[in-house]
Amino acid sequence: MSDRNRELFALVPASLLLVGGFAAVFIQNSASQSGLSLSYGALFLGLCLAGHVVVRITVPHADPYLFPIVAVLASLGLVVIYRISPDLARAQAQWFVVALIFFAGTLIFLRDYRKLERYRYTIAAASLVLLLLPRVPGLGQQVNGAFLGVRLPGGIVFQPTEFAKIGIVVFLASYLRDTRQVLVQGARRFAGITIPKLKHLGPLLLIWGAAMLMLIFIRDLGSSLMFFGGFLAVLYVATDRLSFPLIGFLMFSVGAWFLATHVGHVHDRVDAWLNPFDPALYDRPGGSYQLAQSLFAQADGGILGRGLGGSMVTLPGGGNLVPAPQTDLIYSVITDELGLTGACGVILCYLLFVARGFKIATIARDSFSTLLAVGLTSVLALQVFVIVGGVTRVIPLTGVTLPFVSYGGSSLVANFVLAALLLLISDRARRPA
Amino acid sequence: MLELSSLALQIGFLTVLYVFLFWVATSALRDVAQAGRPAAAADPDATGLHAAVDSMAVASSGSDAQLVVVAAPGHETGWTYDIGPGATLGRGDVEIRLEDQFASSRHARIIRQGSTLVLEDLDSTNGTWLNDSQLGGPTPLHAGDRIRIGDSEFRFQP
Fold first, then answer.
1. Gap between the Cα atoms of A406 and A391, Å rounded
2. How many CA atoms are closer than 13 Å to the CA of A34, on its beta-carbon side?
3. Is A185 helix (H, G, I), strand (E, B) or coil?
4. What is the ipTM of this complex?
5. Minimal Cα distance from B31: which residue of A?
6. Looking at residue A374, what is its pLDDT?
7. Using a CB-CB distance cutoff of 8 angstroms, which residues of chain A are in contact with residue B7?
8. Total Cβ atoms within 10 A of residue B99
């Protein structure tokens, strides 16, 4: 089977999941006929086919598994969001179409993605502006103490970090492509560890400073972990020295610890993380309520889950069992409905996506492509880690979206662009001479 | 009845998800196993087969065509290399030596054919790029053409 036919075939399970998922929710609500779910599935399959045709034409040699994995995650997201609220699902389906248009646009207009290198400082500056946008008075929006959203006219909330992560990675990949040799040359080795010269630590310190500033300004541990971790991954691959990420991680930990003990908002999050079931914290505004409810919901799922539509998303007295079930805490709802088995399936999807991403990085034929693939993949992996780690209480909970699954236009569009870039890199790498 | 169909759907849903994952995972693993092989094949151009052909290009020497470094590891931007009667680019012992981990030891060469210079890829592992498209067979060079091998980029100046 050729690569593209393999990809086409792999889109079938995604549509099956959508049909099955919608049917299950219909039956649970015992409202309308499950025939409707078939038409939803057909529509979804049609959209995926359109995406597939664009892939077939523009990047014929690209990795055949990325797009189906993304489609499976997106269909799962649509089902769970539909289960939470049909209105939100309709909006999400529209965003899915918009995301596919951006996906196709990236594939068509950025075929030579290496020209991004030429605009790296413009891209870096634009990304920084995007990151700081939520702090602009009157424009920014504070959610749970973190500044992550920008309210646009028309009531749309735009999440600039989602786009900034791609821009920052593009900048880092092209910057480190040029400077990596300088970073390694003249470094001393001590006890088997490479210690870079102090002056060469400059860029590292600069980005560390930027991550810390983000932590202070945006007040979001998750996003800064995502950005800084992505940077360390690219740096590690660029220099092939383990000491860089180790030193960087140490610096980040020290900074994060300092801020956690001194900045109120971050401090609260850590408190809630350590004692989610403390009654005082549970009742406090911005306390551990969110996290505790998320843990209850996940425990409720068991091994096989309550069934799609079977969990208690809405409390009998009104209000949601889990706060923000369609965005930050969607993973808890998935675990509640599909159980440990379903949740592991979701994690496996991401693992396979990341494996494909790193595979693309290893076969890429020039450094910029390698570094870009590593960076994009790492940032996505870290985003999943931050939110899944957050809701499962591995790290303090911070609000980032679950890529491709969570409700939200910015997240969906940005991550589809990210996937398109990976496809472009893999097409160039796998193209036969 | 409702319970039963619900349960069946639930199991079916999870089954489809895992069948998909299993399929992607096994295909991906096969891919990884395959990737190990071509790397072991090393540089096919290290055989010296092409070396004999190089001498044929000597015929009309005295050209002042040059390659200008746009960006290349180990070279400074703006450096120029005379092509002369023809030159080979690569990581090995060749006329234009690349310090580029993506270059093969004998990666590509430029030879003179009549009055034009022709760029040819020497079965390199990672390919040669001319003006953002990958080189197929031997291709004549024009003023301002950009030649890219891995991280190294040159501009052709006749």
1. 13
2. 17
3. coil
4. 0.84
5. A359
6. 96
7. 307
8. 13
Pairing of strands B96-97, B86-90: parallel
CA distance A42 to A35: 11
Question: Judging by beta carbons within 10 Å of its beta carbon (0-12, 13-18, 19+), is residue A179 exposed, middle or buried?
Answer: middle
In sign, the C-alpha dihedral spanning A232, A238, A242, A248 is: negative
**Count of residues for chain B?**
158
Q: Which of residues 63-122 of A touch B (CB under 8 A)?
A: 65, 68-69, 72, 76, 112, 114
Question: Could you report how far apart the first and last alpha carbons of chain B are, in Å?
Answer: 81
Q: How far is CA A121 from the centre of its chain?
A: 24
Among positive and negative, which fits the CA dihedral A166, A170, A172, A177? positive
Task: Give the residue from A427, A426, A376, A384 showing the smallest Cα distance to A404.
Answer: A384
Q: What parts of chain B have a pLDDT lower than 50?
A: 36-62
Rounded Cα gap, residues A235 and A229, in angstroms:
10
Q: Among candidates A63, A69, A18, which has minimal Cα distance to A428?
A: A63
Contacts of A76 in chain B (CB under 8 A): 17
Contact A341, A372 (CB under 8 A): no
Compute the distance between CA of residue B63 and CA of residue B69 in angstroms, rounded to an integer: 19
Q: β-strand A146-151 against A140-143: which pairing, if any? A: antiparallel
Residue A334: how many other CB atoms lie within 10 Å: 28
Residue B139 bridge partners (DSSP)? B119
CB contact under 8 A, A366 and B17: no
Residue B72: closest C-alpha in chain A: A178
* Encoded tokens for B130: 């001319």
Relative to beta strand B152-157, strand B66-71 is antiparallel
From residue B14, give the alpha-carbon distance in Å to each of A17, A169, A255, A337, B21.
9, 35, 42, 11, 11
Out of A24, A308, A359, closest to residue B31 by CB: A359
Task: State yes or no: pLDDT of A373 exceeds 90.
Answer: yes
Sign of CA dihedral A153, A70, A49, A35: negative
C-alpha to C-alpha distance for A18 and A33, rounded to whole angstroms: 15
CA nearest neighbour of B158 among B80, B57, B90, B106: B80
| Beta carbons of A416 and A101 less than 8 angstroms apart | no
Q: Cα Rg for chain B, rounded, in angstroms? A: 24
- Partner-chain contact B21 A345, CB within 8 Å: yes
Q: What is the pLDDT of residues B49-81, one digit of tens each?
A: 333 333 333 333 445 788 888 888 877 777 888
Among candidate residues B35, B48, B53, the one with its CA nearest the CA of residue B110: B53
DSSP conformational letter for B38 = H
- The first and second tokens of residue A266, run together, are 């971050």
Which helix or strand (DSSP H or E) is residue A419 part of?
Answer: helix A409-430
Please, what is the average pLDDT of chain A?
84
Dihedral angle at the C-alpha atoms of B30, B107, B75, B40, nearest 10 degrees? Answer: 30
Nearest C-alpha neighbor of B123 from the set B140, B142, B109, B113 = B109
| φ, ψ dihedrals at A141, nearest 5° | -140, 130
